[in-house]
Amino acid sequence: MLDLDAIVWEPGKIAVQRPMAAVLADLDRFPGVHDGWAAEGCYGDLAARAAPRCTQLLFLNPGIEACIDNHTHRPWEPHKYASQAEQDAMLDTLQQWVGSYGERDDAWSLRAHRALFDAHPGAKRELTDRAAIAAYPAG
Asked: Which of 111, 119, 112, 99 lies closest to 44, judged by CA?
Protein backbone atom coordinates (compact mmCIF):
# COMPACT_ATOMS: atom_id res chain seq x y z
CA MET A 1 0.00 0.00 0.00
CA LEU A 2 1.42 3.35 -1.02
CA ASP A 3 0.11 6.21 1.11
CA LEU A 4 0.67 9.12 -1.28
CA ASP A 5 1.10 11.47 1.68
CA ALA A 6 4.26 9.52 2.50
CA ILE A 7 5.90 10.46 -0.79
CA VAL A 8 4.49 14.00 -1.20
CA TRP A 9 5.47 15.55 2.14
CA GLU A 10 8.90 15.93 3.74
CA PRO A 11 9.15 13.49 6.66
CA GLY A 12 8.77 15.19 10.03
CA LYS A 13 7.67 18.51 8.51
CA ILE A 14 4.14 19.86 8.25
CA ALA A 15 2.95 21.04 4.84
CA VAL A 16 6.42 21.01 3.26
CA GLN A 17 6.30 19.26 -0.08
CA ARG A 18 9.18 17.18 -1.35
CA PRO A 19 10.64 18.09 -4.74
CA MET A 20 8.30 16.85 -7.46
CA ALA A 21 11.09 14.90 -9.18
CA ALA A 22 11.56 12.84 -6.00
CA VAL A 23 7.81 12.32 -5.60
CA LEU A 24 7.44 11.11 -9.18
CA ALA A 25 10.48 8.83 -8.92
CA ASP A 26 9.00 7.16 -5.83
CA LEU A 27 5.58 6.88 -7.47
CA ASP A 28 6.98 5.42 -10.68
CA ARG A 29 9.15 2.92 -8.82
CA PHE A 30 6.41 1.57 -6.51
CA PRO A 31 4.33 -0.58 -8.94
CA GLY A 32 7.45 -2.13 -10.39
CA VAL A 33 8.64 -3.56 -7.09
CA HIS A 34 5.28 -4.96 -5.91
CA ASP A 35 3.31 -7.77 -7.52
CA GLY A 36 0.07 -6.41 -6.13
CA TRP A 37 -0.21 -2.78 -5.13
CA ALA A 38 -2.61 -0.05 -4.14
CA ALA A 39 -2.04 3.67 -3.87
CA GLU A 40 -4.21 5.86 -1.65
CA GLY A 41 -4.53 9.60 -1.47
CA CYS A 42 -6.30 12.65 -2.79
CA TYR A 43 -3.60 13.57 -5.31
CA GLY A 44 -5.41 13.45 -8.63
CA ASP A 45 -2.28 14.31 -10.59
CA LEU A 46 -0.38 11.41 -9.05
CA ALA A 47 -3.36 9.06 -9.45
CA ALA A 48 -3.53 10.01 -13.13
CA ARG A 49 0.14 9.14 -13.53
CA ALA A 50 -0.31 5.74 -11.84
CA ALA A 51 -3.68 4.87 -13.42
CA PRO A 52 -2.35 3.41 -16.68
CA ARG A 53 -0.57 0.72 -14.62
CA CYS A 54 -3.51 -0.20 -12.39
CA THR A 55 -5.75 -3.19 -12.86
CA GLN A 56 -8.72 -1.42 -11.26
CA LEU A 57 -9.25 2.23 -10.43
CA LEU A 58 -11.31 2.76 -7.28
CA PHE A 59 -12.96 6.11 -6.60
CA LEU A 60 -13.88 6.24 -2.91
CA ASN A 61 -16.54 8.92 -2.92
CA PRO A 62 -18.69 8.78 0.23
CA GLY A 63 -19.52 12.51 0.14
CA ILE A 64 -17.99 15.51 1.80
CA GLU A 65 -19.81 15.11 5.13
CA ALA A 66 -18.51 11.56 5.49
CA CYS A 67 -14.99 12.72 4.64
CA ILE A 68 -15.15 15.46 7.27
CA ASP A 69 -16.44 12.97 9.83
CA ASN A 70 -13.73 10.43 8.95
CA HIS A 71 -11.10 13.13 9.15
CA THR A 72 -12.36 14.30 12.55
CA HIS A 73 -12.10 10.77 13.97
CA ARG A 74 -8.87 9.64 12.37
CA PRO A 75 -6.27 8.22 14.70
CA TRP A 76 -2.93 9.89 15.29
CA GLU A 77 -0.70 9.51 12.24
CA PRO A 78 2.84 9.36 13.69
CA HIS A 79 4.39 9.22 10.23
CA LYS A 80 2.96 12.71 9.59
CA TYR A 81 2.88 14.39 13.02
CA ALA A 82 5.21 14.29 16.01
CA SER A 83 2.26 14.10 18.42
CA GLN A 84 -1.53 13.82 18.57
CA ALA A 85 -1.56 17.44 19.79
CA GLU A 86 0.36 18.57 16.71
CA GLN A 87 -2.09 16.71 14.47
CA ASP A 88 -5.07 18.17 16.34
CA ALA A 89 -3.67 21.69 15.93
CA MET A 90 -4.01 21.26 12.15
CA LEU A 91 -7.57 19.92 12.28
CA ASP A 92 -9.49 23.17 11.66
CA THR A 93 -7.34 24.10 8.67
CA LEU A 94 -7.58 20.62 7.21
CA GLN A 95 -11.34 20.46 7.79
CA GLN A 96 -11.81 23.69 5.86
CA TRP A 97 -9.76 22.25 3.04
CA VAL A 98 -11.73 18.99 3.04
CA GLY A 99 -14.99 20.97 3.16
CA SER A 100 -14.03 22.87 0.00
CA TYR A 101 -13.49 19.63 -1.98
CA GLY A 102 -16.57 20.20 -4.15
CA GLU A 103 -15.75 23.84 -4.94
CA ARG A 104 -12.01 23.68 -5.59
CA ASP A 105 -10.62 23.31 -9.08
CA ASP A 106 -7.19 21.88 -8.28
CA ALA A 107 -5.71 18.41 -8.86
CA TRP A 108 -7.03 17.39 -5.42
CA SER A 109 -10.65 18.38 -6.06
CA LEU A 110 -13.84 16.47 -6.78
CA ARG A 111 -13.75 17.86 -10.33
CA ALA A 112 -10.27 16.44 -10.96
CA HIS A 113 -11.11 13.09 -9.38
CA ARG A 114 -14.37 12.82 -11.34
CA ALA A 115 -12.59 13.68 -14.62
CA LEU A 116 -9.88 11.08 -13.96
CA PHE A 117 -12.42 8.41 -13.09
CA ASP A 118 -14.74 9.17 -16.01
CA ALA A 119 -11.87 9.19 -18.54
CA HIS A 120 -10.20 6.00 -17.27
CA PRO A 121 -10.52 3.38 -20.03
CA GLY A 122 -9.79 0.37 -17.84
CA ALA A 123 -11.63 -1.41 -15.07
CA LYS A 124 -12.99 0.99 -12.50
CA ARG A 125 -15.43 1.15 -9.64
CA GLU A 126 -16.91 4.03 -7.68
CA LEU A 127 -17.88 3.36 -4.07
CA THR A 128 -20.18 5.90 -2.46
CA ASP A 129 -21.52 4.01 0.56
CA ARG A 130 -19.38 4.32 3.71
CA ALA A 131 -20.11 0.75 4.76
CA ALA A 132 -19.13 -0.60 1.33
CA ILE A 133 -15.92 1.43 1.42
CA ALA A 134 -15.05 0.14 4.90
CA ALA A 135 -15.81 -3.44 3.86
CA TYR A 136 -13.90 -3.29 0.56
CA PRO A 137 -10.88 -5.60 0.67
CA ALA A 138 -7.54 -3.85 0.79
CA GLY A 139 -4.88 -4.83 -1.69
From this structure: 112
What ranges make up the beta strands (E) of the chain? 2-3, 39-40, 57-60, 124-127
Query: What's the Cα-to-Cα distance from 2 to each of 6, 119, 137, rounded to whole Å?
Result: 8, 23, 15
Query: Residue 25: its pLDDT value, please?
Result: 97
Residues 21 and 136: their CA atoms lie apart, in Å, by: 32
φ, ψ (nearest 5 deg) of residue 129: -90, 125
Name every residue whose Cβ is closer than 8 Å to that of residue 71 and which is 6 or more positions away in sequence. 91, 94, 95, 98
Annotate 36-61 with b (16+ C-beta within 10 A) or e (fewer). ebbbeebbbebbbebbeebeebbbbb
> Which parts of the chain register pLDDT below 50?
139
Summarised one tens digit per residue, pLDDT across range 20-43 is 999 999 999 999 899 889 999 999
Classify residue 18 as exposed, middle or buried by CB count within 10 Å of its CB (0-12, 13-18, 19+): middle
